[in-house]
Design a protein that fits this description.
Number of strands: 8
Radius of gyration: 20 Å
Bound molecules: zinc ion
Helix content: 40-55%
CATH superfamily of the largest domain: Glycoside hydrolase/deacetylase
Distance between the termini: 17 Å
Oligomer: single chain
Structural class: alpha/beta
CATH architecture of the largest domain: Alpha-Beta Barrel
Largest sheet: 6 strands, parallel
Shape: elongated
Order of helices and strands: HHHEHEHHEHEHEEHEHEH
CATH class of the largest domain: Alpha Beta
Strand content: 5-15%
C-alpha cells in the first residue's frame, strides 16, 4: 500500500517560489534576470541536498536508529551491492558464528542472477532490502518515471525471491534528487542512509576500513559496508572478509548489539 507523501519544507518553498516567479514574470516580464537567478539558486540548493546522502532536506532520511534502539545500545550493520557468490556466503558464516543479524541492500539484477543466495540470506534470519535494480551511477539524474521503474523492478524481484517485501531503500552511493521521496512513498519504502561508512569499495586496507568505522562508534549507529563491489586487500580478498570478524569483536567489546533495520525501526 502506498503511504502519503508530504513535501518537505524546502520543496514546499520551491513550489511557492516557482509560482511566484511565474506570476511575477506575467506582471513584469522585464524582471526575468531576477527570476532566472532566484530559480537557479533554488535548483542549486536542491541539487546540493541530493548530493549529500545524509541530508534530510528532500525528505525523511534514516541516518541513525531511533531513540529506543539507542537506549538498547543497538547498532545496524548494512551491507550493500550484493548478493555476491564469492563474498556473501562467507559473510553469512561470519555473522552466524557471532549470532548477529544484518540488513543486505541487494541489487535487483544481481538477485535475479543469484536467487538461491538471496533466499539463503533471509533463511539465516537477515533482511534483504532494496538497492535499486540496475545500480546506475546516473540514478540521481533519473526522472520520476525511470526512478520508479528501477526501484519497483528491484522491489518485485526481491519480494518474489525472498517472500519478504523490502521495507527500506538506499540509492546508489546515496545520491538522489527531489523525485525520490514521492516515488518511495508510492512503493511504501523508506530511505535509509547511514551514520558512518567504510569506503570499502575503494579502500582495500583493512586497518583503515576498521579505523573509519570505529572512530566515534556508538549506540544507534548505522554502519555501511559492502559485500558486493568490495575493494581487494593485498592478497586479493574482499576487504570486508578480514574486517567483519574484527568489527564484530569491537561491537561486542563495546556492548553494542547489532540488529536489522527492520527490527530496530518499528
Ligand atoms: Zn551501492
Amino acid at each position: 500500500m502506498p503511504r502519503p507523501w508530504h513535501p518537505s519544507p524546502i520543496l514546499q518553498a520551491s513550489f511557492v517560489l516557482h509560482g511566484a516567479a511565474a506570476c511575477g514574470l506575467l506582471a513584469a516580464p522585464g524582471l526575468w534576470p531576477w527570476a532566472v537567478g532566484v530559480l537557479g539558486a533554488n535548483h542549486a540548493l536542491l541539487t546540493l541536498a541530493g548530493l549529500l546522502p545524509r541530508c534530510a532536506l528532500l525528505g525523511p532520511t534514516l541516518t541513525r536508529l531511533p531513540a529506543a534502539a539507542v537506549a538498547r545500545r543497538q547498532v545496524a550493520l548494512t551491507l550493500d551491492d550484493g548478493p555476491d557468490p564469492e563474498v556473501t556466503p562467507r559473510v553469512l558464516d561470519c555473522l552466524d558464528a557471532a549470532g548477529v543479524r544484518a540488513s543486505f541492500f541487494c541489487i535487483g539484477r544481481r538477485a535475479r542472477a543469484h536467487p538461491a543466495l538471496c533466499r539463503e540470506i533471509v533463511a539465516r534470519g537477515h533482511r534483504v532490502e532494496n538497492h535499486g535494480d540496475a545500480h546506475s551511477w546516473a540514478f540521481a539524474t533519473f526522472g520520476p518515471g525511470r526512478m520508479r521503474a528501477d526501484i519497483a523492478a528491484a522491489q518485485d524481484t526481491l519480494a518474489q525471491i525472498t517472500g519478504q517485501p523490502p521495507r527500506f531503500f538506499r540509492a546508489t552511493a546515496g545520491l538522489r534528487n527531489p523525485f525520490l521521496e514521492p516515488v518511495l512513498a508510492s512503493l511504501d519504502l523508506s530511505l535509509a542512509a547511514w551514520t558512518r561508512r567504510a569506503y570499502d569499495t575503494r579502500q582495500g586496507e583493512p586497518e583503515q576500513v576498521l579505523a573509519r568505522l570505529e572512530r566515534g562508534l556508538g549506540p544507534g549507529d548505522i554502519l555501511l559496508l559492502h559485500d558486493g563491489n568490495a575493494a581487494r586487500t593485498g592478497n586479493g580478498q574482499a576487504v570486508l572478509l578480514p574486517v567483519l570478524p574484527r568489527l564484530l569483536q569491537q561491537l561486542a567489546a563495546r556492548q553494542l548489539h547489532p540488529v536489522t533495520l527492520q527490527e530496530s525501526c518499528p
